[in-house]
Amino acid sequence: MGRQHSPESVPFTVVSRWLAGLATSLLARSLNMPEPLLHVTGRLVFAQVTAIETRAARSLCPARLRRQLLAWFR
Question: 38 Cβ partners below 8 Å, 6+ apart?
Fold first, then answer.
């Protein structure tokens, strides 16, 4: 027999998963896309942003900036 949960004892993870599922469903409906396609698109966008941030961080590396600055003044 399972325990009865009062609304105050519902774990935060259950509520957050339910809200995330609701938000995903609403976004998929508003974009007129199936949910699996929405998930794949989100992963693709995340991968692109991560790649851009990595390239930007590499170009702002202090050692590389120092070498460029020294090369300009030679």
Answer: 24, 27, 28, 31
pLDDT in tens, 62-74: 887 888 888 998 8
- How many domains does one find in the chain? 1
How many angstroms separate the CA atoms of 20 and 28, rounded?
A: 12
Q: Is residue 37 part of a domain?
A: yes
Q: Report how far residue 35's alpha carbon sits from residue 41's, in angstroms, rounded to the nearest whole number.
A: 10
pLDDT 10s digits, 10-43: 788 889 999 999 999 999 999 999 999 999 999 9
